[in-house]
Amino acid sequence: MRQASDRLNAALERYLPEKRLFLRSETSTTRFMRLPPLNQALLLGGGVIFLCWSLFATAVLVTQAIGSGDMRDMAAREQAYVEARLDQLVSERNRAVTEAQAANERYLQAMDRVAAMQTALLSGEQRRAELETGIEGLQRALRERMRERDLARARLEAVESTSLSEQLARAEAQLEETQSTLDVLMAALTNTAEERESVRSVADATILQLDHLALELRLIEDRNDRIFTQLEQAVEVSMVPLERMFSAAGLSPQQLLSQVRAGHQTRSAALTPISVSTSGSLAPDSDEMRANAVLAAMEEINHFRIAAQRTPFAMPVNSRAVRHTSGFGNRRDPRTGRTRMHSGVDWAGPQGTPIMATASGTVTHAGWQGGYGNTVIIRHEFGIETLYAHLHRIDVNVGQRVSRGDRIGGMGTTGRSTGVHLHYEIRVGGRPINPMTYIRAAQNVF
C-alpha cells in the first residue's frame, strides 16, 4: 500500500504539488501539516461530487414545483370552461323554449282567425243560399204575375163592355208593382254577389297567411332541431369525462347516481320537463321529447356534480411550497427501519400550511389519535372517510359540516412523525385505498 501511495503521489506531483499548512500556537510554537498530492486529489474529488449532487437535487425540486403549478392551472381552466359551457347551454335551452312557446301562441292565434273566417264564409254561403231560394220564389211569383197579365189582356180584349181606361189603369198599376218587385230582387242579388266576392278575397288572404305561418313554423322547427342537436352533443361531451372519472376511481357511476337521486328528490324549476300541447292530444311531439331528454341528461350531470362534491377528488393541500414525500403501499419505516404498510400519502411543507377538506362531509373526529397526533376524520357519502394526521392545529369540531376547500387545520409534526408533513388517507368501507387513485382520476375534469 505504501508503494502504491508513493507512486500515486509521484504521478500527481506535476498537477498537485505537495503543500504544507503551518499552524502557530499562542506560545510561538510553529507546526506544519503536509498535504501530499493524493490527499489534495481526494479533497477536490469530494468537493466536486458534493457540488454535482447539490445541483441535481435543486433541479429536481424546481422541476416538481413547476409541474405541479401547471397541472393546477390547467385543472382550474378546465373547470371554468365546463361551468361556462353549462351556463351557456342552459341559457340557449331557455331561449329555445321561449321561442317555441311564442311560435305556438302565434300559431294558435292564426288558427282562431282562420276559424272565425271559416265561420263568416259559411254564414255568407248560407245567406247566399237563402237569397237564391228567395229569388226563385220571386221568379215564380213574377211568372205568375206575367201569366195574370196575359189573362188580363185576354179579358181586356174579350170584355168590350168594360171601360177601356179603367182596365188600362189596373194593368199599369199591376205592371208598376211587378217592376218594383223586380228592382228589389235585383238589388238583393247585387248585394249577395258583392258579399260573396268579399268572402272569397278574405278566404284567399287567409290561405296565404296560413302558408306563411306554416313556412315560419318549419323554419322554427329546423332551428330548434339544430339547437337540440348542439345541446345533445354538448351534454354528451360533458357527461363522458364525469363517467370516466368515477370509473377510474373504482366507483360505479350508476350506483352513485341512484344514491344521489334517493337523497335529492326536489327538482329545480330549470330542470322541470316541458309539456306543450297544441292539438289537445296527450302524446308529446318530437321537440318536447328531445327537450325532456336534454333536461334529463342535464339533471344527470347535476347529480354527477353533487356526487363529485361529496367524493374526495381534490388535493388536501394547495400550496406550491409542499412536496410529495411518500406514497401508498409498503415502505421502509423511517424510525424502525423495517418494512411496513403505509396506508396513505404524505406531503411535506412549512408548518401551518393550510389543510383543506377534499369533499363535503361531516367531521367525526377532531383531536389526538395515538401515533397520528392531531387528527381530523371526515365522513363523506358512499361509505367514504378521509383522515388528516400530524396537524399543528385543528380548525373544526366534531359534528361540523364542511365543504370541499374548507380549511380544517394546519400542517404540523405531532404524533409519530419525523418532520413537518401531512399524512392523508382515504378509506372506503373502513379499508384504506390509494388516495392518488381519486386525485389522478379528477386531473382532466376539474
What do these coordinates show?
- The chain has 446 residues and is of the alpha+beta class.
- It has a domain of 94 residues: Glucose Permease (Domain IIA), CATH 2.70.70.10.
- The strands form four sheets. Strands 3, 6, 8, 9, 10, 12, 14 and 15 form an eight-stranded antiparallel beta sheet that branches. A three-stranded antiparallel beta sheet has the order 7-13-11, with no helix packed on it.
- A hairpin with a 4-residue loop joins strand 9 and strand 10.
- Helix 2 runs antiparallel to helix 3 and helix 3 packs parallel to helix 5.
- The longest helix has 122 residues.
- The chain is rod-shaped and about 190 Å long.
- About 3% of the residues have low confidence.
Instruction: Give the % helix.
Output: 55-70%
The CATH architecture of the domain at 344-437 can be given as Distorted Sandwich
H and E string: HEEHHHHEEEEEEEEEEEEEH
Number of strands: 15
Rg result: 50 Å
Tell me the distance between the termini.
Answer: 66 Å
> How much of the polypeptide forms β-strand, as a percent range?
15-25%
Extract low-pLDDT stretches.
266-271, 276-283
Q: What's the tally of helices?
A: 6
Content-based structural category: alpha+beta
The rough form would be described as rod-shaped
Could you name the CATH homologous superfamily of the domain at 344-437? Glucose Permease (Domain IIA)
Question: What's the main sheet like?
Answer: 8 strands, antiparallel
Q: Assign the CATH topology of the domain at 344-437.
A: Glucose Permease (Domain IIA)
Arithmetic mean of pLDDT: 79
CATH class call of the domain at 344-437: Mainly Beta
